[in-house]
Amino acid sequence: MGGLLSYLPCKDVGPLRPTTGCTRPDGKAWADVVVKIGGSACTKKATFETLNDVALSAICGQLATLPKEGFSLAVVHGAGSFGHQHAKEYGVSKGAEKAMALSERLREGFAKTRLSVTTLNKHVITALLKEGLPAVSMSPCPFVETSAKKLVGGRLAPSTVDGTRGLLGRGFVPVVHGDAVLDESQGVAILSGDVWMVELCRELGAKSAVFVTDVDGVFTKPPWESGAQLVPEILVDPSGELELKGVSMDTASHDVTGGLKAKLESAAAVLIGAPSVQAVYIVKSGSNAAAQARLNVLPEGVLGTREVFIHEIAE
Ligand SMILES: Nc1ncnc2c1ncn2[C@@H]1O[C@H](COP(=O)(O)OP(=O)(O)OP(=O)(O)O)[C@@H](O)[C@H]1O
Ligand SMILES: C=C(C)CCOP(=O)(O)O
Question: Where is the site Transition state stabilizer (predicted)?
Answer without folding.
Answer: 45
